[in-house]
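Researcher: Structure prediction, please.
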Amino acid sequence: MALRSNSNRRGRSGPRETTRTREGAVRRTQMITTYGVGSMVALGDRSFIVSGLDTWNADRAERVYEPNLQHWLGVREFRLPPAASPPAGDGVRIRLFPEWYSCGTCRDLQPFGRFGSPPNRSVCGACGTALTPSRFVVACANGHLDDFPYFDWVHKRTTPSEDASQKHRLTLHSTGGSASLRSIVIKCSCGKSASLEGAFGKAAMPSIGVKCSGRRPWLGKYSEEKGCDEPPRTLQRGSSAAWFPVQRSSLSIPPWSKGLHRLLSRHMDKLAKYEDNEAAQQAVIETFIDGTGFSVAQVLAALDERRKLAGEEPDEEDIKLDASSRLRHKEYEQLSHGTSEVTRDDDFECEPAPMDPSAPDLDALDKVMLVRRLREVRALQSFTRIEMPDPAASVRRAKLSLEELDWLPAIEVSGEGVFLTLDRDRLHRWEKTSGPQSRATRINDSHSAQLLKRAQIAGRTPTADDVASPIDARFILLHTLAHALINEWSLDCGYPAAALRERIYCSPGPKGMAGILIYTATSDSAGSLGGVVGQGDPHRLGASLDSALDRISWCSQDPPCMETEAGGTDSLNLAACYACVLLPETSCETNNTFLDRALLIGTPEAPEIGFFNRPA
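Model: Predicted structure follows.
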């Protein structure tokens, strides 16, 4: 996919013309995961920020439909990021950011436009040296982003008037004494200078009187949000904290995975034009059903199913759950019961695997389902800065566009997997014991403290819901089991750990969810070659589960790993590190938090804590 910037040049008749220049390319999937709206991307010797959705030329982009996810996110459709060339599109717009650059020869530090660079080049107009974009930016937890305030940093609280500041010339110097910020010195022609030591402190910007500007450079000029009270924080331009995607995904399950709905999805944009004209819709349907085996009546019935879902209100039980949990419950029920009458055109095929009670550790499982075919839609809903997205917290999310749109960017992937559920009776007995609850409470308390801190930073009076962590021993057990199996299967099924993903199904109570889906999904057919489904064979599964538990029973970082009182990001792990159960970030739903291998295999002092060490 092409990334294009707007550049201005003077036409023959005098007025300036805007042209679009191809600056680089990324994969479509990266527009959801790595280089989505609001993220910064380095291309050549310049740095850019991906523009908002309202600048994308996505009218001709391919539509993606997943009714359950559309209903949950409140959008009419999803669209693939536009392709690199017509007619499917002409790429995605990007804007120059940060705006401040420096010259390695002149040492000048100023906005890019003042260097007098030739069109589409990043060189100093005075000496011809390649320019370097600013290494540092400032951002706040509300998602705002701005250039680092070099002038204010040098002059601290003695900043001259705005007019006078235009006469000050800043230069960037490196003493070379060390790699620390102390070696980076900003000098002003007025005689003042300051190193960047301390610029990354939480109170660094407020200490020099710099408040959040409310800038949203990805949405263009005049898009600032006034009145932001969040203190800006200094970040490195390439820091992962500068952009965290808020992704939502859903498996396509019956009836939406059926061949009839797949056919309907390919023509939804045509049918939407005649939403209130059934006769016209019938005429459109007749143009695409020849040879499909479906009738006009069947297509209209499928269309009516989608309308009903769009207007569906949650029932009394569902109203207690958020939209994400309702979606997971639907998937859990379908995965647990499997499918029947599957055709080659369907996107979802799930069948039970034969169980072998004699296989080691399989008596702890209730069901093993082989998901031979699955389709997942992943949409970019928003993004955050500074703070990682937390499903349990009210994290401030930035907007993807100035105006509200009825679509979101998304990709669809196909794959396969294995779905496991734990034995309910054994799980219920294990949850009643004090050992697992004690360890889970320590993680829960750390999470509640983090939720409280976020509520206070947001300026809200914390309520019980704000600080109530939903994490319990069941979730930690399921999550750690998924990590152990992914690490084990990556050694046996031909896929690296980064190509495998987890999906946790968990809710409290004797009849609550207690399952995991381990799957691989890619944008082509490579995600369904049978390597993962093969792990669901009872003998193979028993052997791999036994090996996984044996592998995590000892860690190269033990005894500190097993005996740690708190570990991981924000102290949200116990016995878990990269040497035993942590995974690549693309594989984990919770950024490698809420893990404790002791809940699987126990501790040397208390082996009964482990779920797989309890007698059947």
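Model: The two ends are 54 Å apart (CA to CA).
Researcher: Thanks, that helps.
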